[in-house]
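Protein modeling request. Please complete all fields; requests missing the sequence field cannot be processed.
Requester role: graduate student
Desired output: 3D structure, token encoding
Chains: 1
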Amino acid sequence: MAKNNDSKYSELSPFELKNKLINLAQSNTDHTMLNAGRGNPNFLATIPRSGFFHLGLFALQESEMSFSFVPEGLGGYPLHSHLLDRFEAFIRDHHDQDGVKFLGKALSYVRDQLGLNAGQFITEIAEAVLGCNYPTPDRMLVLSEEIIKTYLIREMGMRGISTQDFDLFAVEGGTAAIAYIFNSLKENDLIKKGDRIAIGAPIFTPYLEIPELNDYELVEVMVEADPDKGWQYPERELRKLEDPTIKAFFLVNPSNPPSVKIDDHSLAILTDIIHKNPELIVLTDDVYGTFADDFRSLFAVCPQNTILVYSFSKYFGATGWRLGVIALAKDNVLDRKIAHLPPKEVKALDQRYSSLTMQPQSMKLIDRMVADSRAVGLNHTAGLSTPQQVQMVLFALFEMMDVQQNYKAMLKTLIRRRHAALYHQLGVDQPDNGNSVDYYTLLDLESICRKLYGDAFANWVLKTQDPLDILFRVAQDTGVVLLPGKGFGVLHPSARASLANLYEYQYVAIGKALRDLASDYYSQFKQSKK
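Delivered output (530 residues):
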């Protein structure tokens, strides 16, 4: 394999570099390509999906009742009168099917545990699953929002926060959430070109790349997690956020790729920092929070300063569904900052949103995000598709109804068995971190080399081998695809491996392939000493 690939590919996003590595891995027919580079899980929640499809069948039957006098193939909106009665009859008639049984339990949970109107709930989801109308309200369907709020309060550790304290905007996954938030922060003059923003590193690559685009031209201040402290942020790093010239702090929690949640000590420090820098905007992407034990989001401790992004994609195996939400407290520093913008900027924003309301200054940021997501002029057709919102609701109800947390336990066991298999076959002790969710693992090149063959070998590898060249060789010689840690802001030579998208025996194969490659490098090292 030719060297100096780093100079050719080092500027590529790791997700674009992945395609180069896949091509190399597939070029050697002696090996099966094992792509551990992407985080798309190979597991998924089946019961709420079954409930979705059965709900669709019920709604179709209801639709056909509206035009029973015409030939087949034409339907109308489900009739509201006695819809709940007909749904309950549908449940009784098909109670032996798991998806229908789940729907019956969901109805009971919504009515008896959440205290929501059962008839209104069935009317909302029966129409929504058919996708026969624009999302109304466009930000999120009414009861769907209440249900997802309850889910987030539970899963994000929001003790002391009620559903009345915050709003949700249903979006097309975490990716859309990131794009919408950056855009609205810019459009509403909350971040401007040249502003200093802090990035909690390592981090999902787009958070490093988007601020540098000419759309934003932000100045990045890195807040570095320490691998020697279990990937927690040292206090000296967090205290950078006390600087009032830093406008925002962007982070992923649990982190990507270390997969470590922020501990309670660091949350307390961040709370203290926000008291000292009360206008700091925090954007926390908590997609992996549902995999963690006793997780607490920054939104739970600093809600007035925090924008929360949550996606259903990883935990429920739903990346293709594109399901996510943006959460913003009703009392928040962002709305207050907009209200105190200079008169010239206020006037410009009034003009921007004047087609939507007679009082644009009273328009909340989260509603501005909805409008901005459709270039304002298309606000009347904004919003996440209603079938997507239904599936999101059923996922949330499935998790909340799982009192024994069986699904969560199965996922944790599945991922951690893969983690153990990889490191066991690699021949080194697996990292032991009580705050880790193990969705990804960072393979530390230096640490692995030292543990396998000692300090002299590790020093030789670091001196003579380029980390990116090693990944190219791994792909070409073994068929294993890993992503460079550098692309996620990791400072030391490393590779990210997803523990979610392959089977356990395949992680055994990856561990063996990496161990064999290390042995080959060790032979080269010994030859160089002769």
